[in-house]
Amino acid sequence: MENLKNFYIDGKWVTPTSQITFPVLNPATEAQIGKIILGNTADVDLAVVAANNAFETYSQTDKSERLSLLAKLLEATQDRFEDLAQAMSKEMGAPISMSRAAQADASVGHLHGFIDALKDLEEREVLRSGDIKLKEPIGVCGLITPWNWPMNQIALKVIPCFGNWLLLCSEAI
Q: What is the CATH architecture assignment of 7-163?
C-alpha cells in the first residue's frame, strides 16, 4: 500500500495539512499494516476547490470523452486487479478469495455496467408535453465510503461521476 499519508487532490498526490495519523489494522490479525492521515477541514476545502476548478472543463466533456476515461479506468483496474485484491484483503482481513471474487471483481463488473449505461444514456429527451429534459452536470459532491466494502463502494460512488450527466462528483474525503 502506497501513499497512505498523502491525498490525491488536483491530479497529484499531496501532503495533507493535517498531520494526525491513524493506524490501519488488518482486522483478521490485528497487525498494523500502515498509517493514514486523518484529513481536516482545510484538506477537504483544498479538495473542493480543486473539484470546482475541474468542474469548469470536465462538465463540458462529451459522452465519448467520458467513455474513453472509463475504458482507461477499466483497463487500469484489470491490470492492477491482484494488487487491489491483496490490499483489500489486508485492509479488511478478508480471505484473498473473497477479495478477488466479491470485491475487486465487483469493481470490474460495475465498470462494465456503467460503461454500458453511459453508452445507452440519452442526454436530451423530448417529453410528451414538448418540454425538453436535459441531463447535465450540476456540481461537486463529497462522498464518504465505508471501510468494510472499499472497492465496491468507491466504484459505486465514483464511477458514475465519469458518465452521469446529473451529477459531477469529486471524492473529497
A: 3-Layer(aba) Sandwich (3.40)
